[in-house]
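Response to reviewer comment R2.3. The reviewers asked that we include at least one raw input/output pair. We reproduce the pair for Response regulator here without editing.
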Amino acid sequence: MLVVEDEMMIALDVQMMLEDNGYTVLGPAGSVEGALRLLDELRPDVAVLDGNLRGRPVIPVARRLRSLEIPFVLSSAYDIFTFDGSDVLAGAENVQKPVSENRLIAALQRALS
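Raw output as returned:
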């Protein structure tokens, strides 16, 4: 499980939720570059992505995940993504922020099925 989130407290909270539910967490990665480096070395089963990382859209990470056929869910305060390339996010469930453990785990189960 890859967690991509630039706000450290949220990242740690999501990591704890996932670990409490039996997931092994890679990262968390706080930037597009950090997430791409992790994906160069490791292949997670699924990922949780924040839509905006330090002012940069998560699009390059989503593209890499799609190319590797790794499902992902979004954990973003944004409902609509209007930046270039946001079509790569189509079909990914957004569990919204603040992240609810029940919503997150259910969305991940759906993404993996």
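The helical segments are 8-20, 32-41, 59-67, 101-112. DSSP finds four helices and six strands in the chain. Further pairs are available on request from the corresponding author.
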